[in-house]
Amino acid sequence: MNAMNKTKVPIPMFLLIGIIAISFSSIFVRWSDAPASVIAMYRLLMTNVLMLPFLWNYRHEIARIRLKDWLRTAISGIALGLHFLFWMDSLRFTTVASSTAILTLEPICVLLGAFLLYGQRTSRAALIAMCVAIVGAVCIGWGDFQFSGNALKGDLLSLIGTLAVALHMLLGKGLREHMSAFVYSFFVFLFAGMVLAITNLFTGVSFFAYAPKEWGVFLLLAIVPTVFGHYVFNWLLKYMNASSVSMTVLGEPLGASLLAYFILGETITTVQLLAGCLLLVGVGMFLRSNEKQ
Q1: Rounded Cα–Cα distance for residues 278 and 134 (Å)
Q2: Per-residue confidence (pLDDT) for residue 231, from 0 to 100
């Protein structure tokens, strides 16, 4: 954690920027009528295009990447691509609140994986704080959970996407120990985009037959939740535990639900607002306990 102290940057500010940015993801996806696999593909590949002019500056680092790390980066990218594919598709069948609330299972998966892979232990206070935050997040989407029909399908898709992003986060923690955020993010996004492109090719989905509005949505997804969201979280993996970064993502259900209320006209209840406050308290307690340094 010494590197964190040397950077002299306000980590909480970057956490807040990342949470707000990823909260817009659900809104942008709802604005698009394109298939989820196409939305996810262009979101990632457009991000690569935005990053491409700066790639030459990292040529020496890229030349030193070992085969083992290339394989781990590829798997991380594939997992991220599957996360986007399943989670975005879930929004076609269930509400924003329900879909994003299921994402609260991510820190549990990451915490378990971090213990098994890296021997990372968590204090009892942090575990209690995690439970508080997860209860709050689940309560935000509880009224929208349905256990049959399309809503159930959407919830299951969101669950699969959650498991995939947990794997991506765990691999990223190890790779970021000796790989810059830019290089890691560029190739993870590239591998994820390629997986989605292959999926679209084999399913016969059109690559180009979309209205100008759709291309605008693709670009918004690339800039806001990907660059200012996922890239920022990849950067933070160098200075924070993977479980802590995952916990901050729990702010997305609250942010997305508030944005859906103001922009999409979805309802939000007093219980959901109170649950949001409980979520924030839990996240704050967890970070304070888990990131003491």
Answers
A1: 9
A2: 93
